[in-house]
Amino acid sequence: MAVCVPIKDMRDTVRFSELIESAPGPVTVTKNGYDQFVVMRSDDYEAIRLSEAKARLMARMALAERERAQGTAVDALESL
């Protein structure tokens, strides 16, 4: 379940930090009833970044494999 708090709750930094650490996922901070930004644990953010990097790498590997299968790939020594 999503956690959503008003921006004024950030004044109590200790309690806000505990909320972030105990929340099951990202915490949405609102201002005047509208989403302002999202806060998450640094470990969760790093996991997202790692997952995106893996996805980009896999996409590039799939492209290279398609090029090789189609015969359009060029050997590194040939390209020099």
User: In which range does the helix fraction lie?
Assistant: 40-55%
State which percent range the strand residues make up: 15-25%
Compute the number of strand runs: 3
What is the succession of H and E elements?
EHEEHH
Give the strand order, joined by hyphens, for the main sheet.
1-2-3
Biggest sheet character: 3 strands, mixed
Mean pLDDT: 92
Tally of alpha and pi helices: 3
Span of the ends, CA to CA? 54 Å
Characterise this structure.
- By secondary structure, the protein is an alpha+beta fold.
- The protein has helices at 13-22, 42-70, 76-79, and strands at residues 3-6, 27-31, 34-39.
- Strands 1-2-3 form a 3-stranded mixed β-sheet, with no helix packed on it.
What are the key terms here?
3 helices; 80 residues; 54% helix; 19% strand; rod-shaped; 3-stranded mixed sheet; single chain; alpha+beta
Write a short abstract of this structure.
This protein is α+β, with helices and mostly antiparallel strands.
Write the topology of this structure.
Elements: E1 3-6, H1 13-22, E2 27-31, E3 34-39, H2 42-70, H3 76-79
Parallel strand pairs: 1-2
Antiparallel strand pairs: 2-3
